[in-house]
Amino acid sequence: MSSPGTYRNAPITSVVLAVEVLAWAIGIAFLLYAPSALPQFRFAKPSMLWASFAGLVLVLAYLIGLRLKNRAMKRFGEAGMLPGMVPGVSSWRTTTRFLLLRHGLGLAIIALAGPQMGTRVEEVKAKGVDVVVALDVSNSMMAEDLKPNRMEVAKRALAQLIDRMHGDRLGIVVFAGQAYTQLPITADRSAAKLFLGSLGPNMVQRQGTAIGTAIEQATRSFGADAAKGKTIIVISDGESFEDDGVTAAKEAAEKGIIVNTIGMGSPQGSPIPVRVSGSVIGFKKDKDGQTVMTKLDEGMLSRIAEAGNGEYVHATSGDTGIDAIMAKLRSMDQSDLGTFRFAGHEDRFQYFLAAACALVLIGLAMGERTFANPFKKRIGWSA
């Protein structure tokens, strides 16, 4: 039982927790059933939804804060004197204000997650060059002389390239001991991004680093309708023991294709970690039981770039080398590649953002204390 002039903890706790449980129940039910009931609905950035757990922290902090306020007010004066000393204390106002602010934050988080519903048709006029990225996915790319490892830096380089290509077309070839076309040349950047998450050593069964084969496969990717400016970007650590990458680059250059290279790793070398469930349990060893050290072969990558009339760039953990490569691409002849139509998703975040702003503004405008009125005795929430 609360004293006059203090907040009614029990009713406030019950209401706040009931609304919180209801909100989470609605949210979880929506996430579970939306894929089947609303197949065209999705979140552009679903990872942002993890921030929703901050709401639970706010609820806990609010309820604890009210109890601490009550204790402080009780120490401030006797129970009978509190209503006069601290006039207008209102449990229902402070609770309503908190709920508006808390769930306004929840709606803002949903808006940040980028809800999308339905599709729209986009037309893109492409004018640029044709680029085929030959990405090394061999085991050596898991070495951690770049942070977090060579593969992740290579994928970040590819993501940056995709984001900066406007009007250009892109294809992707993955290679280790063999080479495969992962994505035929396309102007659809969203299609290219779909493959980023799946890139890794498990994509190619035969291990090794066949750069020459990768360049040959990339060369075949350019069709009869290829742009005037054509380039291959090899992203690798350069440890090629399978074939002759320099000869393949020369043959590509004879066909008007420029071969650029980006080196991943360090010349000093690094062991290749063996992971189980995300934890390192050792390092890869050779047939003699010695730890394998994989080193960046800058000499090989430089010779390949020179033979292909291109440029070699050494990537680091902080610089993927894409800036230098993009400068090279922009200096090449640009071609009109036609108009392409794509289906994109319609953003719906604005509705959630508008509702969030409305709740927050109402909450901020609403005071926590009430004014004297003739109906005060009829309001059960009034402390």
Classification by helices and strands: alpha/beta
Average pLDDT, all residues: 84
Q: Which architecture of the largest domain does the CATH hierarchy give at level 2?
A: 3-Layer(aba) Sandwich
Measured on Cα atoms, how large is the radius of gyration? Answer: 30 Å
DSSP, total strands: 13
Largest sheet: 6 strands, mixed
Low-confidence stretches: 1-5, 374-383
Write the layout of secondary structure elements.
Elements: H1 9-37, E1 41-43, H2 54-76, H3 82-85, H4 91-112, E2 115-128, E3 130-136, H5 150-164, E4 169-175, E5 179-186, H6 189-194, H7 211-221, E6 230-236, H8 245-254, E7 257-263, E8 270-271, E9 273-276, E10 279-283, E11 293-294, H9 298-307, E12 312-314, H10 322-330, E13 335-347, H11 349-365
Parallel strand pairs: 3-4, 3-6, 6-7, 7-12
Antiparallel strand pairs: 1-2, 2-13, 4-5, 8-11, 9-10
Helix pairs in contact: 1-2, 1-4, 2-4, 4-11, 7-8, 8-9
Structure characteristics:
383 residues, alpha/beta, Rossmann fold, 2 domains, 6-stranded mixed β-sheet, 3-stranded antiparallel β-sheet, 11 helices, 13 strands, 41% helix, elongated, disordered C terminus
